[in-house]
Design brief:
The complex is a heterotrimer of chains A (114), B (237) and C (118). Chain A is 85% helix and 0% strand. Chain A has helices at 3-35, 42-49, 53-82, 87-112. Chain B is an alpha+beta fold. The termini of chain B are far apart. The chains are: A mainly alpha (114), B alpha+beta (237), C mainly alpha (118).
Chain lengths: 114, 237, 118
């Protein structure tokens, strides 16, 4: 695959994930504003989320969207503002993709299933 | 109104500095008039570039008080701050001398984005009928009046950050040809304008559209290319 | 070396929108792993999660939390503006959306701030 084709696909992934994330963010903002009233407690959070497939599916999609969306923007910044090119910029992208995916899904698992 | 202008002008090449000149303030004076005054009356060695003086040729663009502008149609009254002007060569282009930049990169990139028209008909064929009110023709018309002054190219940060980036003018030109039904190079052109060097690097900062002296919107054309490329692979396997 | 632009060339609404979008995005990207790590404490049980929540229950963290909510809504709105510019017919640089983005994130910030205080 040519470099230009990769970039074209990444652009597309960034835009489509943005559309999904925009919906997730609106919901997440609403949930947060509701949740922080009267302070956060672990029991309160977990009572809401544990065993809830709706929350589970929602946040899993949210995490997948982030894992797709974030690395593309971060590499753009690394390349354009910090002069990182080639292998190092690929490494940063991989780090963010897998970091977000693993930590994110672990967190979803934690608040839904454990 | 002050009777004189304090003008600091970039002298030298990449290594150089600003030199101050006093220039008499006149009515309806353009920035190009100011430079011409310095060159004719104060320092004959000042290098600058101009041709038509009426906003058609696109050769007199410079950085005026930090912003890229066409100097022939920029009145001093629009830009002078407290009777002061700062004149520098365009950004993002190598400096030849003083206010003159080497425009080769800029025009080479037009060629790399396949900015040349290539039709299929000869002079023996009938004229092709293009509906002026068709969507494609209107899109082409919106970008066609570019005079190649380089103001957008100099204003674009992505050009500074990614030296291979074709830049707003070349991509705007490509977009007008994509919308020209007579042109035969669509497939090759879409390949040429994709990727890091092409439309996908644009971050919609809008500096090109904001600064274009002809009020064109390269951002619109670049967005159009991105849309077109959603369904067209950029070539290669 | 060529000359590059300074703040005078960049000082216009669409460039400010770009900067807000990029800086907020970078801040969120750096925050996300920490956020996920903290929520992941729930795997070890409610006590571990509460341990972190109590640790984070101090003014500096609350303020950072509030800032992130503002940045998240700002980033989203700036992003929606870009999607509109790129996918919808051209109607200019949509500066009304820049104002809207700032307004929306401030409103979200106030709503979240009120919810925090109560």
């Amino acid at each position: 695959m040519t470099h230009a084709e990769t970039k074209r696909q990444l652009w597309y992934v960034q835009r489509i994930s943005a559309m999904v994330l925009a919906c997730c963010v609106v919901a997440h903002l609403a949930i947060m504003i509701y949740a922080v009233r009267g302070g956060l407690s672990g029991a309160e959070i977990l009572a809401r989320t544990q065993g809830s497939w709706l929350f589970g599916a929602f946040y899993a999609v949210f995490v997948l969207g982030c894992a797709a969306h974030v690395p593309i923007g971060v590499t753009n910044i690394a390349e354009e503002w910090f002069g990182v090119r080639g292998f190092k910029s690929t490494l940063i992208a991989q780090l963010f993709t897998w970091g977000i995916l693993i930590l994110g899904l672990r967190a979803v698992w934690g608040v839904i299933a454990s | 109104m002050t009777k004189t202008l304090a003008v600091s002008v970039w002298r030298g090449k990449e290594e150089g500095g600003f030199v101050s000149y006093e220039v008499p303030r006149r009515d309806n004076q353009t920035v190009l008039d100011v430079i011409t005054h310095i060159q004719r009356n104060v320092d004959h060695t000042l290098a600058y570039r101009f041709a038509c003086r009426v906003g058609m040729c696109g050769s007199c663009a410079m950085t005026v008080n930090g912003k890229a502008r066409w100097t022939c149609r920029t009145h001093v009254s629009q830009v002078a701050e407290n009777g002061k002007l700062e004149l520098a060569p365009l950004a993002n282009l190598p400096i030849v001398k003083d206010l003159v930049t080497d425009m080769r990169d800029f025009f080479d990139k037009w060629a790399r984005g396949l900015g040349q028209f290539k039709g299929s008909r000869t002079r023996k064929d009938e004229f092709e009928k293009v509906r002026p009110d068709s969507k494609a023709r209107m899109a082409a018309d919106a970008g066609i009046e570019c005079i190649g002054c380089g103001v957008c190219y100099a204003s674009c940060d992505v050009v500074s950050w990614r030296p291979d980036y074709l830049g707003p003018a070349a991509l705007n030109r490509a977009w007008t040809l994509v919308n020209d039904q007579r042109d035969t190079q669509l497939v090759e052109r879409m390949k040429a304008v994709a990727g890091d060097a092409g439309c996908h690097s644009c971050h919609t900062q809008g500096s090109c559209t904001e600064r274009c002296p002809k009020q064109l919107a390269p951002t619109a054309g670049i967005a159009g290319l991105k849309r077109q490329l959603m369904t067209t692979p950029a070539g290669g396997k | 070396m060529k000359r590059t632009n300074d703040s005078r060339a960049r000082n216009h609404a669409a460039y400010w929108a770009f900067l807000m979008h990029r800086v907020s995005g970078l801040a969120l990207a750096l925050f996300l792993p920490v956020h996920f790590w903290a929520l992941g404490q729930a795997i070890k049980g409610t006590a571990a999660l509460d341990g972190f929540l109590q640790f984070a229950d101090q003014p500096l963290f609350k303020f950072a939390e509030w800032g992130l909510v503002v940045l998240l809504s700002l980033h989203m709105m700036c992003g929606v503006r870009l999607l509109l510019i790129e996918f919808r017919p051209w109607t200019g640089l949509r500066k009304n959306w820049i104002t809207g983005a700032v307004g929306f994130s401030l409103a979200t910030g106030m709503a979240f701030g009120l919810a925090l205080i109560r």
